[in-house]
Every structure is written in structure tokens, then in C-alpha cells.
Task: structure prediction
Amino acid sequence: MSEHRKLDVLVPKAPAASVDVAPWLAFEMDLADEEATPEGAVVYNAAGVRLETSRVVDHDAGDTVYRRGAKVACETPTGVAWGIVVVASRRKLVTGTLARILRLASNGDETAEAILRAREQAVYVAARNAVREIGLSVKLVRAESSSGGERFLVYFASEEKFPFQELLVAISRATPEKVELRQVGLRDAAKVIGGVGPCGLQLCCNTFLADFAPVTIKMAKDQGLGVNPQKLSGVCGRLLCCLVYEEAFYRAQRKLVPRMGDRVTTDRGEGRVREVDVLEMRVKVTLDSGETIVTKVDELVRSQHPS
Result:
């Protein structure tokens, strides 16, 4: 019998203030199956945290168990940020490293956050007035504090270049804060602001999408959705990200069905394919006799490609 390697993680018995002690003192993970364990993976006590401008991201909870709904202070590349735990801490195998949860947000943290949010709003108003003053056709996304309020990042959505320096000077005249301008695309703006998509659910980019995949009108045609821009566009005005989700399935299924215009043989005679239903695996065929029938793909024989 082969020897199994086991990984033990111990949790301190002393409880942190207002936080539950882990209900487990130790656990074992069977690592006998090397293929099931990614190389370099580490077991974390991970909690899913939503920061204000990001999707839910796992954070290292250390030796503490955080319940859903807890307000926590987390480390970020721009300093400490506050977030809400939406996935309670649990054991998770992770490849790479996770940002840390520093602590539960205290009353003092909440007071400081409220002051910081008020300063962000003031910068936002100053930037909005500057845009109107200059007459720029850009969309102001948000103002965000950085490095604990030492400076503020102002995000603008525009697909074209605009006079950064002129706008920065106008904003600096209207606020005493140190301001940096960041230009983002329309999709990035929707990701930051959030909203509800045509499906009635919260935007994918604002919840779970890590990166934007290229979306083309060909994907919509492959899925038989037509080319109506109003039905294919998201709140950002760009093609729906969800068109990518089933593209691989449709691409694979289309290899199993005849193409539009192909000559095929049915049990009622020969004809030409006029419509294809990839999901139902059915085709509409116009027979040489002029009759139109609908038949299953596995009940016909492809004769030849259209000339």
C-alpha cells in the first residue's frame, strides 16, 4: 500500500473579538492523487470578499473564521480597503498567493471610511464640473481614494483621446486634493459602476468575470441570434459578454450539421438546406419538388456542398 502524504492546518483556540473560532482544530487533505493536486498549490483559509469596485475575490483569512456579512479591512495594491465578506471563510486549495484580510473593521475604521467617501464625492463633483466647463464628451465613472486618501484616482470612460492636461488643471483648481486621471473603456466603466443586464441579473463583469474576452458579431450569427444591435448590446453599448459562453458549444455542434445551402437526401427525396437549428439538431429542407420539410440531422444524408 502506497504511503499517503497528509497536510495539517491548525487553528488557534483563542477567539478573536467578535469573530468565531474555527469549528475545526485540524483537517487532513489526502494528497495521494498527484493529478488532482495542482503543482505549487497551497491550502488557505480563504474568504470571498467584495470590495467596492471589484468582483468577489478570495482573500487569505489567516487563522480567523469570518462569517458572511462581516465588514473587513483588506490589503490592496493601493493601500487598505474595506470590503464585505460574501463567502464565509473555508478551506481552499489555491495556486499562487492571496491578498490578506487584515482585521474586522472597527468603529474607528467605519468613521474614517465615511470621511474618505465624502472626500471622494467632493472630488467627483469637482471633476464633473470641470468636464462641463471644458465641454468634453467623456463619461465620468468615479473618483476613488488611493494610499489611504493621499491621492485620488478619477476614472473617465472614453474610446477616444481627450485633453488630459487641460482637464487635470481644471480639476486641480476646483479641489485641494491630489488627483490622477485614468482613462478606461466603456466595458471597464460598466464593470466599475455595475448594473442589471438584459437577463435581469447583475452584470457578469461586475460579479465574476476576471477579464474581458473578445466578442464578435460572428458569434451572434453562429448562435442564430441575428444582428439586431439593440438585442445584442449590453448596458455598456458593446456586444454582450455572454455571447462567448456558448460559442465553443455551437462551434462544435455546427460540425455535426449541414451548412445552409447544402444538398441533402431525405426519406422524401433530395433538397437543399434552408435553415439549421443547432440546439435541436434539426434542419429545414426545401425539396426539389418544392415541398419544405423539417427533419432530424441524423435522418438525412449530405449529398454535396453547394456549387
